[in-house]
TrEMBL record:
Residues 7-36 form the DUF2510 domain. Keywords: Cell membrane, Membrane, Transmembrane, Transmembrane helix. Residues 124-292 form the RDD domain. It comes from the Bacteria. It is a multi-pass membrane protein. Residues 33-42 have a biased composition (Polar residues). Residues 80-105 have a biased composition (Low complexity). This is RDD domain-containing protein. It holds the Pfam family DUF2510. The lineage of its organism: Bacteria, Bacillati, Actinomycetota, Actinomycetes, Micrococcales.
Length: 311
């Protein structure tokens, strides 16, 4: 049927056994059973537009009970994606937050699964997520250290390798090889090895501080979908906070390169630091407590959100 041009009851274009009210702009959701139908006299000319319909009520009666016979209140339209009455946004079909935005539903009283969280309600990363990210980062920094410092490591080990090959060609005594293995540490004290250690420490510093200030997460953390932020503020870390957070790790790396007694202390500190989040109520490692940071679920916004002005 043709679209009518004036308000009124007409044949329902979707159901032949009922009438539907047209408000002059769109078809409304108000319907009525087909009971009567006005037809013109046989001698009259056919109407120019669609046949007007008469609802069960008396002709001229306002079907809504509050306006004149020729008008009706505009229907409450529901648009796809618009919030329903009451201002609550529908969640069905909601798309995931783009990179750089935190997932909706975080925050006090937002219905997120209960568990340790930051003061503003962002859930903290699980312990094994942190362990997995740590292993990935160790592998990546080791690869970078080998690329940039491998030459110096091989140069430092070259005398030991030559002695090992010579012993293999001249003797079959297992004790000779055992002595060579025990003496390996004595070869790792020269300038070339110290250069390699310095490159390794520098790679770790640039890797961790750089990614935490740029993206709020190292590649290992990004792979596990976790990130680092200040405990009381979202967003990538500032340079000052990132350096303070890495200070303990840097000290452990330096101690590990020193004589055996201090290297054992460094190993103990590293183990305590790695295990601390499993028992801490805030899931903070020792270096998190120094930096005032937390490792949380999800990614960080590219910029820290502005704090709204207090009334």
């Amino acid at each position: 049927m043709e679209t009518p041009s004036t308000p009124g009851w007409y044949d329902d274009p979707e159901a032949a056994d009922q009438l539907r009210y047209f408000d002059g702009v769109v078809w409304t959701r108000h319907t009525a059973p087909r009971t009567t139908r006005w037809t013109p006299p046989e001698t009259s000319a056919p109407p120019a537009g669609p046949t007007a319909q008469v609802p069960p009520a008396a002709a001229g009666e306002d079907p809504y009970g509050w306006r004149g016979p020729s008008s009706a209140p505009p229907p409450q339209q529901t648009h796809w994606g618009a919030p329903p009455a009451g201002g609550v946004q529908q969640q069905w079909g909601q798309q995931p937050a783009p990179y750089g935005q935190q997932q909706p539903g975080w925050g006090p009283g937002m219905g997120y699964a209960s568990g340790p969280a930051t003061p503003d309600g962002v859930p903290l990363a699980g312990y094994w997520q942190r362990v997995g990210a740590y292993i990935l980062d160790i592998l990546l920094t080791g690869l970078l250290s080998s690329i940039f410092g491998g030459y110096f490591l091989l140069k430092a080990l070259r005398p030991w390798i030559d002695d090992f090959v010579a012993a293999g060609n001249s003797s079959d005594d297992p004790k000779v090889f055992e002595d060579l293995l025990n003496s390996l540490s004595s070869y790792l004290t020269g300038r070339d090895f110290l250069t390699y250690v310095a490159i390794t420490i520098l790679v770790g510093l640039v890797y961790n501080v750089g990614f935490n200030t740029w993206r709020g997460a190292t590649p290992g953390k990004m792979a596990l979908r976790i990130s680092v932020r200040e405990r009381d503020k979202a967003g990538p870390l500032s340079l000052q906070v990132a350096l303070r957070r890495y200070a303990l790790t840097l000290a452990i790396a330096i101690l590990g390169a020193l004589p055996s007694g201090l290297s054992l202390l460094a190993m103990l500190l590293r183990v305590v630091d790695l295990l601390f989040p499993a028992f801490d109520g805030r899931r903070q490692a020792l270096h998190d407590k120094i930096g005032g940071t937390n490792v949380v679920q999800g990614r960080q916004p590219k910029r820290a959100p502005k704090t709204p002005p207090q009334p």
